Records
---
Amino acid sequence: MNYCYDHYCCRCFTTIPKSVYNNSFENVELPLCITCQNWFDRLCVKPTSCAKKLFRHLRERNIKAELESKGKFKTVDITVESALVHIEVDGSHHNLNATTAIKDLWRTYYSMKEAYFTLRIPNAAIRHDIETTVKIISGIIIERKKQLKRFRELQFIQSRSEQQKIF
Ligand SMILES: [Zn+2]
């Protein structure tokens, strides 16, 4: 375990005593401060081990991710609000079961209508190569932020040219 050197809450980055860190990690697979442990207890849907592992690694890279955040139509495994990215951590049943697969597609569609890009990460990537997985996700988030910035600039230019037409 190489996480024991820095004792901080992986959700809010508050420093915590080693005992709190270890207890929380043992109980819920996430090093959380007492406040964030209470938040975790109140979650209606508990995240899977893979979702928690990915969340912890994203937070370690200082990516502002949130677990089990409530979207308009659903709860999302991990949300990166600043990049309008939803991350869904998928077990094998998402590929094998047609009903689940179609439901996933609908969720992607409705998220897109709300401007969110949905990223589906298979459990295997998180279990077997978390470093590369997080590296690629970080790259996607950076690119997504650039796209959003360009899109907003374009919108601004368009709205100005519309105004100039009126006056
Ligand atoms: Zn915390």
Note: The longest helix spans residues 130-166.
---
Amino acid sequence: MTLVLLTLYFIFQSFIPIIFGNVHINPCRGYCGNLTIDYPFALQSGCGHPGFRELLFCMNDVLMFHISSGSYRVLDIDYAYQALTLHDPHLSTCDSIFLGGKGNGFVVEPWRAPYLNPVPDNVFMLIGCSAQSPLFQGFPSKHLPCHNVSGMGCEEYYDCPAWSIVGPKRLGLSSPPECCSMSYEAIKSINLSKLECEGYASAYSLAPLRLEGPHEWSYGIRVKYSVQRNDASCRACEASGGSCGYDTGEVRPVCLCKGWNSTSNCDSVAVDITTVAAID
Ligand SMILES: *[C@@H]1O[C@H](CO)[C@@H](O)[C@H](O)[C@H]1NC(C)=O
Ligand SMILES: *[C@@H]1O[C@H](CO)[C@@H](O)[C@H](O)[C@H]1NC(C)=O
Ligand SMILES: *[C@@H]1O[C@H](CO)[C@@H](O)[C@H](O)[C@H]1NC(C)=O
Ligand SMILES: *[C@@H]1O[C@H](CO)[C@@H](O)[C@H](O)[C@H]1NC(C)=O
């Protein structure tokens, strides 16, 4: 008996995506340029996960990411690794250093912080910070909070051609240093004006091997996103032909079904089969 029910269950399970997959067009999925926008992200209000609401905007096929520190261009959304790659036009790289405090840095709204964080092996290199910067307060001069992150840091960054343009300073020897590298974890907010820094660079490495030097690093901000507990309920919603969204009033997740909204999923038949199969 159990075997028959389980077999039926698996048959239904494999048919549901076929039946609904062809008919149902996910109203929440979208594109911007060549980037696919899918759960937990969305371009429309009411779609996606509420932690990512009012975050992405598509303008002339360019996907923009907006948080309290400013707007960034999204270069990539890696759904498998749950990561976004961002670009800030005033982000310093190996070829150019932008001073004047125009860079965004990286500061997220406190309510969004559980959902978005730069990856632990993304290095932030703060450039031209004043001696009065909060970065350098409370540390004996030989023990500044500046550290390499995954083999990337200012010592290596100084080898970039951009530094020869900025000028031959006593690189690494001046106090405070011209550049101070750290992970996002170390300070939780890269606010250039608060930290009294002139500019910043940010780099990450996707290669499992140690890279030759700073010209091989990828410049940009690599951000990890997480949806925490809601992932399973979203999968159940999508399996029933719904689209994952949220109630714009109360900001709680809902399953957007054809013509109605459900707090679980669109397909009561699928729920019954699951319930029967669970009884043995
Ligand atoms: C998307 O387009 C950009 C240029 O606009 C290109 O650099 C990038 O490689 C493309 N990405 C994919 C995944 O095709
Ligand atoms: C379902 O929820 C979405 C998003 O909150 C809303 O735009 C839509 O009007 C709702 N539909 C119904 C039928 O309540
Ligand atoms: C950055 O710090 C400055 C000065 O403390 C503050 O006025 C500003 O609101 C902060 N910016 C963000 C995005 O938190
Ligand atoms: C880390 O930084 C130090 C200087 O503080 C440098 O000498 C060293 O080579 C760096 N280590 C790695 C693994 O990049």
Note: Residues 2-23 form the longest helix (22 residues).
